[in-house]
From TrEMBL:
Residues 1-21 form the signal peptide. Coiled coil: none annotated. It comes from Flavobacterium quisquiliarum. Keywords: Signal. This is DUF5686 family protein.
Length: 833
C-alpha cells in the first residue's frame, strides 16, 4: 500500500529537464504481410548501441552520438540497413523480407529447439563457470559504489499540462524530453544520489555497505522515501536463477531452468573491447509468465557476460508496472575476470498497460569503481549496527559531490534540486503533498501532533452498537526518541466512553533500549489471536468490524495497564520484559466469564462463583527477525515491504496475590513464520504457533482458538470457526499458504488476459484442556477442544481488478458441531505489484 501511495505522490511532483541526445529513432518492424515482428534487433550501424523490439514490433532508440543508419535483424529474415536522413526520425515502418541465405550462424524461428542449438551450448558453459566469474573469484573484495535514482512523469501532453491539478505549478512544464528506451515524453520529478564503500567476504558470505554520502531533491533526511526507493530497486545478480523485482520472482535468462522458459538464438559474434563475444537473443516461450526479452554478449573463452539488455514482457502478470528495462555492462579486469561496472534499470509505473497511458518512470543507475581484492577484515567488521545513523552523510557539501560522483550530472539533472526546492514553496503543491501523506499514513498532520488513525474512526459490535473513535499522537519527526498516543471512543448502545493512553521513551539509542507503559479501558474480543504482545493500544478487527457473518455478544470489558522495557540486543533480535495488570468481566448479558472459586460440594452444592478476573502478570519475550529491513531510527519504526522470517517466544507468569491477583500460572507461547520463495512456482508462508499454560485458570485467561466472523480474510485466524468455538490451555496450530502468482492461469488461454492469481492453503490446530480447568468453568460455555485436529482448507483468486481477493474456505471436520460453518467466503482489498 505504501508503495502505491508514494508512486501516486510522484505523479504530482513535476519539474523541468532537457536531454542532449543527437540521434533518435522510433518505429515498428513488420514482415511483408504487415504483421509485427517481435524481438527484432535494432542497432545503430557501426556501434553496439541497440534495442530489441517489443511484442508489437515497436522500438525506440536514442544515442548522444550521430548515426546515419540502422541495422535491423530478426530470426528467419534478411538483415536490413535503414538510412537515417535526419537526426530525429519517428514512426518508421521497417519491412523485413524472408532470409534467402544464412551463412554466418544457424538461426531458429518461433519456438527454438532444445537440441542442436549452439546458443544452448554456450548457455551451459555459462552455468559451468558463473561462480568463477567476477567477484566470486576472490576471498574478499571492496569497491566504491555510486547510485542515482530518478523518477519522471511520462507521456506529457498539452491536455495534461492544462489540468487544474497543476494550477499554480505551470512553470514545471517549461521543458520536456524523450526517453531513450520508450520514446515517451517525460519530466523529471525526483532525484537521489548515494555513495557507498562496499566490502564483501566470500568465505563467510558477508557483505557490508557503508553509506558515505546521500543527496535527495527536496526531501533530505526523509528516511521513508529513501527506504521505499531502496526496496523498490533491490540488488540482484544476473547469474541467479531467479531475480526478485517488486516482490515478484522473475526467471533469469541465465537460469538453469531457462531452457524451459525461454527461446534462445545465437545471433551474431564480434569484438567488444578487444574480446571476441557471442550475441544471443532470448524471448519467452509462453505469455503471462514473469520473464524477459532481450539479448546478451558473452565472451568466447571465459563465458562471462560482457553486456546484457532485457525488458519484461508486456504480458507479464505484474500490476502497476508497464515496463521494466535493464542494462548491465562488465569490464575486463584481466584475461579471466569480468566485473560489473554499470547497472541501469528503468521501470514504467502506470495504472494500466495501455500504450498511451500516463505514468511515472523510475530509473536507477549504479556505477562501480576502485576494486580491491583479498584484503581481509575481521568478522566483527561485518556486524550490523543496531540503530546507527550518521546525519553528516545527508549534509555533504557540493565539494564532496564534485569529487565523489562517478559521472557528472548533466545541467538538467542538476537543475532538479533547485526546481523541487522552488516547488515546495508553492501552496498548491503543499496541499497535494499533505493529501497523499494522509492517505498513506492514516494520520492528519498538525504541528508536532498527528490526528488519527482516521481508518479507525467508525466501528460496530453488538454491545456498543455504532462506535466512534478519535485519537492522536505526538510527532516531531520520523526519528522521535519518545512518543505519546491516546484515544477515546464512545458506543451509542452502551452509552459508555472508553479510552487508551500509552507512551514510549528510547533511553539508549545505540541498543534501542525503550521504556513503555500505558492504560486501556475498552471492550475487546478476547481470543482474536493466540500469541500475545505488549502493545497496550492494540485492538482486534474482530471487535470493531462494521459487518460480520453472525451475531457475537461474546465481548469483554478490559482494563489493562502495562509497563515494559525492551532492548535490541543485536540487529533484529529484541528482548523485552514487562509487568501488566488487568481486570476482565463480561460486556454482555448473554455471555459469561464466571468461574468457581470454591467447587460445589455436599456442604455447598452451588459452590462459590466469581464473575470478574483480576490478574497480575510478568512476562519476558524474545523476538528474532533475520533480514528484516526497517525505516527510521526513532522509538517507532516502519517496516519495509520485504518478506522475512519471524521467530517469537513469550514466557508469562501469573502472580497470585500481587495487587489482589486471582491466579498463579506459567505460560509459554512460540510463534514462527517462514516465507519460502519457490522460484517460478511462487511463494509459500509456513506459520507455526504453539503454547501451553501450566496451572488452573478461568475462561478469561484461556487460549481461545481464533475464529473469524467477519467478511474479511484475517491472517492467523480460522475462517470457518466462530469466536470461542474451541477453547484450550495447550495448543499447536500449523498453516501453509501459497501464492502461485498467476502461473497456473497463465497456462489457460482464455484466462491469461485477466491476470488473476491463485492462492491455496491449509490450516490445522490440535488442542487439549486439563480437568482442573474444566472443573472451575461456571460460564455456561461448553469447553470444546480440537483433540482430533481440526482443519480447514481454502483456495482463492487474487488480483481481481488489481485490488480485490476472494477466498473460499471449506471445513475439513467437526462438521456436526452446533452452528458449524462448513463453507465460508472471505474477501480482502490491497494494492500489490
Amino acid at each position: 500500500m505504501k508503495r502505491i501511495i508514494l508512486l501516486s505522490l510522484f505523479f504530482v511532483f513535476a519539474f523541468a529537464a532537457i536531454a542532449t541526445a543527437q540521434t533518435k529513432v522510433s518505429g515498428i518492424v513488420l514482415d511483408k504481410s504487415n504483421q509485427p515482428i517481435p524481438f527484432a534487433n535494432v542497432v545503430f550501424k557501426g556501434s553496439n548501441t541497440g534495442i530489441v523490439s517489443n511484442e508489437d514490433g515497436r522500438f525506440y532508440l536514442e544515442s548522444p552520438n550521430t548515426y546515419t543508419a540502422l541495422i535491423v535483424t530478426s530470426a528467419g529474415f534478411s538483415d536490413k540497413e535503414v538510412p537515417l536522413e535526419k537526426a530525429v526520425n519517428y514512426n518508421f515502418k521497417i519491412v523485413l523480407g524472408e532470409a534467402e541465405a544464412l551463412n554466418e550462424v544457424v538461426i531458429y524461428t518461433g519456438k527454438t529447439s532444445k537440441k542442436n542449438n549452439p546458443a544452448l551450448d554456450i548457455l551451459r558453459k555459462i552455468w559451468e563457470r558463473k561462480r568463477k566469474n567476477g567477484l566470486y573469484q576472490f576471498n574478499q573484495y571492496q569497491m566504491q559504489k555510486y547510485e542515482k535514482v530518478e523518477f519522471d512523469m511520462n507521456t506529457i501532453d498539452s491536455a495534461f499540462m492544462k489540468n487544474k491539478l497543476f494550477k499554480g505549478m505551470e512553470f514545471v512544464f517549461n521543458h520536456v524530453d524523450t526517453s531513450d528506451v520508450t520514446g515517451k515524453t517525460y519530466l523529471p520529478i525526483f532525484i537521489n544520489e548515494s555513495v557507498y564503500d562496499v566490502y564483501g567476504d566470500n568465505k563467510i558470505k558477508k557483505v557490508k555497505e557503508n553509506l558515505t554520502g546521500n543527496k535527495m531533491s527536496g526531501f533530505n533526511g526523509n528516511q521513508q522515501i529513501l527506504a521505499f526507493v531502496k526496496d523498490l530497486y533491490s540488488d540482484y545478480n544476473i547469474y541467479d536463477n531467479h531475480l526478485k523485482f517488486f516482490d515478484k520472482s522473475f526467471t533469469s535468462p541465465l537460469s538453469r531452468t531457462g531452457i524451459d522458459v525461454y527461446n534462445y538464438v545465437l545471433k551474431d559474434s564480434a569484438y567488444i573491447d578487444k574480446k571476441w563475444c557471442f550475441n544471443i537473443v532470448f524471448y519467452p516461450r509462453r505469455k503471462n509468465e514473469l520473464t524477459f526479452k532481450g539479448d546478451f554478449w558473452v565472451n568466447d573463452t571465459t563465458f562471462a557476460i560482457k553486456k546484457i539488455n532485457m525488458g519484461v514482457t508486456k504480458s507479464a502478470n505484474i500490476n502497476w508496472v508497464k515496463d521494466i528495462y535493464i542494462e548491465q555492462e562488465f569490464e575486463v579486469e584481466n584475461d579471466s575476470i569480468f566485473l560489473l561496472t554499470r547497472d541501469y534499470m528503468m521501470s514504467d509505473f502506470a495504472l494500466n498497460k495501455k500504450e498511451k497511458s500516463k505514468g511515472v518512470y523510475g530509473k536507477r543507475t549504479t556505477l562501480y569503481r576502485n576494486h580491491k581484492f583479498n584484503i581481509q577484515k575481521p568478522e566483527k567488521f561485518y556486524k550490523e549496527e543496531v540503530n546507527f545513523i550518521d546525519n553528516a552523510v545527508y549534509e555533504r557539501p557540493p565539494e564532496f559531490w564534485e569529487e565523489n560522483r562517478f559521472e557528472k550530472l548533466n545541467k538538467d539533472e542538476a537543475g532538479i534540486y533547485k526546481m523541487l526546492d522552488t516547488l515546495q514553496t508553492v501552496k498548491r503543491f503543499k496541499q497535494l503533498y499533505n493529501l497523499v501523506s494522509i492517505l498513506g499514513s492514516g494520520y492528519v498532520e498538525f504541528k508536532n501532533f498527528d490526528y488519527g488513525p482516521i481508518y479507525s474512526t467508525f466501528g460496530y459490535n453488538e454491545v456498543e452498537g455504532l462506535r466512534l473513535r478519535v485519537g492522536g499522537r505526538t510527532y516531531f519527526g520520523p526519528n522521535d526518541p519518545w512518543r505519546l498516543q491516546a484515544y477515546t471512543a464512545y458506543g451509542f448502545d452502551d452509552n459508555k466512553f472508553k479510552y487508551g493512553l500509552s507512551g514510549k521513551w528510547m533511553v539508549d539509542k545505540k541498543n534501542r533500549v525503550i521504556i513503555s507503559g500505558g492504560n486501556r479501558r475498552d471492550i475487546e474480543q478476547i481470543g482474536a489471536s493466540l500469541t500475545t504482545t505488549n502493545d497496550i493500544l492494540g485492538r482486534s478487527f474482530a471487535s470493531s468490524a462494521l459487518f460480520t457473518t453472525g451475531s457475537n455478544g461474546k465481548l469483554t470489558n478490559i482494563n489493562l495497564s502495562n509497563l515494559s522495557v525492551e532492548m535490541e540486543a543485536k540487529k533484529n533480535f529484541v528482548v523485552s520484559a514487562g509487568f501488566s495488570y488487568r481486570t476482565l468481566e463480561s460486556a454482555s448479558k448473554t455471555f459469561s466469564l464466571d468461574y468457581y472459586t470454591t467447587l460445589p460440594s455436599m456442604t455447598n452444592p452451588t459452590g462459590v462463583i466469581k464473575s470478574d478476573v483480576k490478574q497480575s502478570e510478568a512476562n519476558i519475550q524474545f523476538e528474532y527477525m533475520p533480514n528484516r529491513k526497517t525505516i527510521g531510527y526513532g522509538v517507532e519504526r516502519d517496516l519495509v515491504d520485504s518478506p522475512f522470517s519471524h521467530f517469537f517466544v513469550n514466557f508469562s507468569y501469573g502472580l497470585k496475590g500481587v495487587l489482589d491477583s486471582d491466579f498463579a500460572y506459567e505460560k509459554i507461547q512460540v510463534f514462527y513464520k517462514q516465507p519460502i520463495i519457490i522460484g517460478p512456482l511462487g511463494r509459500s508462508n509456513i506459520i507455526l504457533e504453539t503454547g501451553k499454560t501450566f496451572g488452573t485458570i478461568p475462561l478469561g485467561l484461556m487460549s481461545v482458538i481464533p475464529g473469524n466472523q467477519t467478511y474479511f480474510t484475517i491472517e492467523n485466524t480460522f475462517s470457518n470457526l466462530n469466536f470461542y468455538e474451541f477453547v484450550t490451555d495447550q495448543y499447536t496450530t500449523l498453516q501453509w499458504n501459497h501464492d502461485f502468482g498467476g502461473r497456473l492461469f497463465a497456462r489457460v488461454p482464455f484466462m491469461r488476459k485477466l491476470n488473476w492469481r491463485e492462492f491455496v492453503g491449509v490450516r490445522a490446530v490440535h488442542g487439549t484442556i486439563s480437568e482442573a480447568n474444566r472443573a472451575i468453568n461456571a460460564s455456561g460455555l461448553p469447553y470444546n477442544v480440537p483433540e482430533n485436529i481440526y482443519w480447514e482448507y481454502h483456495a482463492g483468486i487474487g488480483n481481481i481488478f488489481k485490488v480485490f481477493r476472494i477466498d473460499f474456505s471449506w471445513r475439513g471436520n467437526y462438521l456436526d458441531m452446533p452452528d458449524a460453518h462448513k463453507f465460508a467466503v472471505k474477501g480482502s482489498f490491497g494494492f500489490y505489484f
